[in-house]
Structures are given as C-alpha cells and as structure tokens.
Input
Amino acid sequence: MRYAMAIDTRKCVGCSDCVVACQTENNVPIGYCRDWVTESVDGTYPNVTIELRTERCNHCDNSPCVRCCPTGASHIVEGGIVLVTHHQCIGCGACIQSCPYDARYSHPDGYVDKCTFCIHRVTKGEKPACVSVCPTNCMYFGDLDDPNSEVSNVLKNRKFKALAPEAGTQPNIFYMV
Amino acid sequence: MKTRRDFIKISALGIGATAIAGGTARLAFGSSLFGGNSNEEEVLKQMPTYCEVCFWKCAGWAHVTGDGQIKKITGNYDDPQCNGRLCPRGTGGVGMFSDPDRLKKPLIRVGKAGSQTYREASWDEAFDYIASKMKDLKSKYGPESMALFYHGSSGNHFSHLMKAYGSTNHAAPSFAQCRGPRDVGLEATFGESVSSPEVTDIRDTRCLVLIGSHIGENMHNGQVQEMSEAIDKGAVIITVDPRLSTAASKSKFWLPIKPSTDIALLLAWIHVLIHEDLYNKDYVATYAEGFDQLKAHVSSFTPEWAYGITTLKPELIRETAREMANAAPSVIIHPGRHASWYGDDVQRTRAIGILNALLGSWGNRGGLFFKEGIKLPEFPHPEYPKPAWSWRDLLDGKYPLANEAVTNTVIEASYPKDGKEARIKGWLVSGTNLIAAIPMKQELEKAMQALELIVVVDTMPMEITSYADVVLPECTYLERYDDIRATSHREPTLSLRMPTVEPLYDSKPSWWMAKQLGEKLGLGAYFPYNDYAEVLDWQLKQVGTSLDEMKKIGVKKYTRKTSPYIEPGTIHHFKTASGKIQLYSHELAEAGFDAMPVYTPHPEPEEGFYRLIYGRAPMHTFSRTANNPNLVALMPENAIWINPQVAKLWGFKKDQYIWLKNQDGAVSTFPIKVRVTERIRWDSIYMVHGFGHHHKPLTFAYGRGVNDTELITKVMIDPTMGGTGMRGNFVTFLTEKLGKEASI
Output
C-alpha cells in the first residue's frame, strides 16, 4: 500500500478551492494552510505559458522531516502517510527547515502541522477533502502499488514529474504536464 | 525550469508574510469557531442549502455541529449545477456566516441625510419608520415613485412586496451593467438568450471559443467543470483575450487581441466561413434568414483587413475559423456573461450569435442545447394593482430593445434634471452594493442626496448602507428559507434552501421582512402565511414532492419531456417572430440601428496611459466577498497586472504600491500592488474587480486594493438597450497619492 496523488496541471485553474476545503475539513486556522497553489510563468508576451499547481506535503518515502524529528512526533504510518502526533511535538521547527517543499507550518497552538492526506477520510474509503471538492477534477488519489487504481491508471498514459527530485526525498505527488 | 522559490504563490502562504501577519489577529476569530483536533470524530448534521455567494446557486449541504456552528459546506452530488463539487466561494461560504463584521441590528439614521450616524433600533421601530415614509410617498407621488434595486434571491421577496404596493420599477445591475447586452443580442438573433446557467453544451463540445469569457477565473462552477471535461476529451479551445487568462493558458490557440477590436475579428471569422464555403449550408438554409445580405456585408472584411485592427495574423484568423468549421456543429462560440464593454455590445453579441448560426451549433450536441425546466405555481395571492407607469416610461424613447429595467435611467430619474421634477423618490436596495456596481458616480451621488427614503437590506455593512436612512440586517443564506431554485437546463431540477442554523445576532430573513413591512403597509393579504415554509410546502406539493422530502434530498431531478437537441427529421422553431434565426435583423433596422454588426473604432489611450481591463478571481464574487474571512485568506487584495516592458519604463518593482489616475483626473482612493507579468499586453493593465472598499465597518476589506469602478468615469452607453460600456477608460500611474506623478 502506497498512497499517492496525481495532479493534472492541464486542468487546474488555480481556484484554490482545495485550500478552503482543507481548511474547513481539518480546522486549519485561517491565515495558515496545509495546501496552496503556485503559478509559474514562462516566456515573453505573447509567447507565454503558465503552469498552475496545487501543492502540499509530498508524503516522501525518504522523509527528511521524519529523520530529523527529535521526539518521534513526525512518523510514517501504513500506506506511507507522513503524520505529526501533535502532543509529542515540541514545536522545535527542525522539520520545517528540513522540508524542501515548505509543506509544514507552526500551528498557533504550539505544534507543527501539515497535510495528512485526510487520513481520517481515506481510512473510511473517502477521498481527501481537496480531491473531492476540486471543480476541475484535476486531482487523483489512490494506491500506487495497485496497478489498477485510478492514480496508477492516469499516470500510465501521461508525462509527469515530481517536485525537487534532486532532494532525493522520493515524493509521492506527481504532476501531469 | 525555475525552482519553486521563483514561483508566485497565489494562495494564502504566498500572498506575502506581511499581509498574512497583518491579518492574523483579526482572522483568528474564524479559527476559534472550529478549534480542536481535526481528526476527532464529530457528529455533524447535514442540512440542504443552495449557495448565494454567486448567482450560480449550487446546491449543497451545511454540516452543522452539535452546538449550532457550521463546520463546512459541501456540494450535493445530485445537483447537475455542481455535481457535488462547490467552488472556493461556495466552500468558503461559511465565512459569510462567521464574518464578525456582519450587520447585527436594524439601524436608523440620526440627524440629517449624509451624516452617516446611526442608532440601533428594534425591528418594529424600523418597519414603522419605513412604512410611514412609504405611505407618505404613495400619497404624494404615487406608489411608482418607489424603486427596488436588487440582486440575488432576496430580491424576489421585495419584488413581491413592491408589486403589491404598486410599483414595477425593479432594476437589477445584472442587466445594464452586465449580461443585458448579451441577452438582448442573442434574443434579436435566436429569439432567446442562453439563460443562467448557460445552455452551452461544453462537456460534449469539440471546439470551445472564448471571446470575452474567462472560465476558470469566472468560477461559474458547471462551466468550469465542463471545460475540464472537454479538455480531458481533447476538445480544441480557442481563447481571444488581450491577457493570457487561465483559459487562454489551457487553449490550443490564444489570440492576444488588441482590446476593443473584437467585432473586427468576429466579422473576419464570418468572412472566412462564408468565403471559404465552410459554413453549414443545410442548417443555414433551414433555419436562418438574411444570408445573402450577410454575405454581401462581410465581403470586404477579410482577415487581412482585420489584421490591421486586431493585430492578429491573418493566417491565425483563418486557421482558427477552419478549426471551428471542422468541429461544427459541436462548436460553441461562447457569448460570455459580463458583456457591457464598449457600447456596441449588443452588436458584438449579434456577431457571436451569427457565427454560432453559420456553424449550426444551436440545437446540436456539443453546441447550445434547448433547456427544459419545471414551473412551480405561484402561491395564491390577490391580484397586484396595476401601476400607472413603469420603468419603460423613464426611457424617453431611448433604448427600444431594453426588456428589463435599466438601472441608469432609474437612477437619473431619482433627482431633478433639466428643470424636471424627479419621478423616483424612494429606493429599497436588496443585496447589491450599488457603489461598486454602478459606474456613474456623479448621477448616483445626486440621486442618493435627493431621495426622500433609502432602505438597504444586506448581510454586510457594504458602502451602500452608509447612504441609507434605514439599514435592515439580513441573515445569510445559511440561516433562512428562500424560494425554491427551479432550474431550466439539461434536466429540470428543484433545490431547497432552508435555515441550517438559527440566525446570528438580530438578523432576519428577507421573506419575513417583506411580510412584516407588507402588514404595516396594509398589504397583509399578500402574505397569507406565518412561515415561508408553508409557501414552499404548498408549491412543492403541486409538483409531486414536499418540504419534508426536499429537506432529506436537497435536490430533486425531473425527467425531460423534450429533446435537448434538434431531432433528425424534425424542424425546430426558434423563438423569433418568423421562427428563424435573424442573420439580418429587421427588428434592429426598424429601430434605426445596424441590421448587421459593424466594426467601429473606439478611443485609444494617450501616451503614458493604459487601457483599464477588469475581471474576476475564482475566490471572489463582485465586491461582496472582500471581507469574507475564509476567502480573504486566499486573496486579500487585488494587484495591477503590468507588462514587464511597461514596468521597466516606469521603474516599477514587483509588489510596489502605486496609485492610479484616469483620463478624467479621477485618482484611486487607495494604492494597489504592482504585479509585473508577461501575461498582459503593454497597452493595457488589468485588475480584479471588487476591492478597494472605503467603508470602515468592513474592517478587513477597508483600504485593500483599488476599486476599478472609481476609475470608470467614462461610460459608453449601448443605444439599443442602455448597457453601460465600461472598457473605455485609461489610467496612468502615481507613485504618491496627491504628490508627484510617476514619470517615464
């Protein structure tokens, strides 16, 4: 079991619904977020292209945040989901520094917080909140170890990339281009 | 490839540390409502609603906690308008409920008009005040002297009240300031418009042409979803825009047109279809009238002619016309929605209509389909009195094609003009912030100073409330009943909005306000119910369901009785007088206008000035969401898009704040952040509409960004229907507000 997400940048319109849905689903304080949208612009007018991407924790197989956590609050569970146990976290912020994706933030209550792939929904067979709300249906979620899962299938026929592969973290979010 | 550090993050994290830090203390309010561990199991009650953050009205569920707070809102999977997926504004609709700046108590002005000092009042006192004024106006000037301005669901309740009172002067900015020109242009061509939600069959199209439509930035949910589906299916998208819009970035062809020249491009496309013999001959022969006149009309409008006007290469114009013809009839030239640009907007929409007609798209799969809905019978009430006059009498022979009240003429009739007494003496304003919606500031100001009564109903202290004699605090859509949403589209659907929680503060639903006011005015017979639930239950029972059933399902779909497309072997009758599509419009010709669209050059910016283009962001609706805690976290202010060459010329740096001054000397109240981007032409600048609020009770929105309407002092009126063209304004830059001007 290896949970992964495939995101179709050809369909994403950058509306940030994923951000709002995550906030209300996971009680993320307003002004903070577990996921966000980036826009990159290439070229000069009128030969311009843009890529919009919804980003979040990559739930890396080789997670620097888990390795550097002094208390064991950051850990990996079944399916490869990286979690933070809030009451074990001392808020030292080492993991925030170690993450090449800027995926973690200091919660005002004193612990570090990040995307959980909505594990509370996923274990009930539902999709993460961001995936289920997306108006463009540009996000696919599932088990990459299952060759017939939706996420495996969409990645079979498309060119895709991962972010910051040079960091060696083995991320589990893939962007179809 | 750039590293992600170079990317402009457009979400909360990326807005910039200062913006977020500045807002944190204020924004923490929202979080405290839902504090606690995200993973703990809460028992949530689901109650149906349909959204009111925009006009798309997606059906969804409010998830309510045991202590009566709304935790989240999700889409209803049975609703074809959203398919279970709300947009960011719908998901963030909870912020409309939790916004601490909401109107909380009825307010009555203290002292003279314009003093903007209010005292809290009881509902009874507020209604007594309004009723006595309305009775007074009725006896002095007749009931027609009272006008209603409205937007959204609440308008229906006040419309009923005003008709019972004796006035049909009901004006919505959505006509003359927005979709009016589109609807009138299509009605003159096909006998009907595309309605809302639009009858564009995007999910099955093979070619989608966007000219003045920014799907993805306008978050018209169903259309965004269908465009995404069309991309999956390999549809060709052609986008015409002076800006690399989100949709343009998804397109096979982007035509970076010089602004204000769209009609020239449309005429050249028509020329190519006809002169290269690419049009649908059977369809045109069967369904259209005036083809020979059209052919002669466009004979000289070659792509080479259009090149000099639009700056688009002739080969690109030809190639895109051929793409449309290849896909026909599964092709949509999208007529857009906000169409009041240059004062010749009915004619531009006519050109769009004519293109669709030549390609045979209306009535075919992947083009434009025939809608079907279910009609709810009206709850019985006494007949309305017949008004002595209506908004049509204010037109003075102008705007013969206007088929809805023209806001601008109602405003101009609200103050003495040319030695004539004002015919409108009182306003009831429901759900529309006229200050941000109406570009004619001077006329608006004169009217609001002259009126004897202004009543404003809103959930938020928008700018318009500061002009009111009485402010009535409405509860949000999540706290009230409204009319059933009866949608005509691919399939007939009904959707229920009900109170999902008790109204906060002393806010009340509009149906209740209308009834209370009606009773005080002696019109109680028009409101024969104690609770609007009785009206809804009665109506629903006439169509085979009930309020109880709708509370459980939220959305009910009905089966179509007619085909959405022209069936083989049948002939469709369009809703024009002759039953045929009007390529040549006798209606327009007889009214003294061009029977076929003509390109007219529009004014261009002087040196050092840039055309002001405004638009939408997917996380905001008009000016109404700029204070919504959940949505401002995504986009707290607007920015001005400036081409890097222009920025270099002026020495502007990314994120610098500047003021704007227009061709008439109007200066923006607040500064705006510079966004240097290759996505915009060098002769234009762009900003999202709806920011730059100057009303302090909007504690978050106050002073953030620029209100484009302040800079739209030149309005080009469409002579056919009164639409206010707003794209003919030019701005230059100031580095200090009233100090030195920036210079090249």
Remarks:
- The longest strand of chain A covers residues 36-44.
- Chain A has a mean pLDDT of 97.
- Chain A touches chain B through 55 residues (CB under 8 Å).
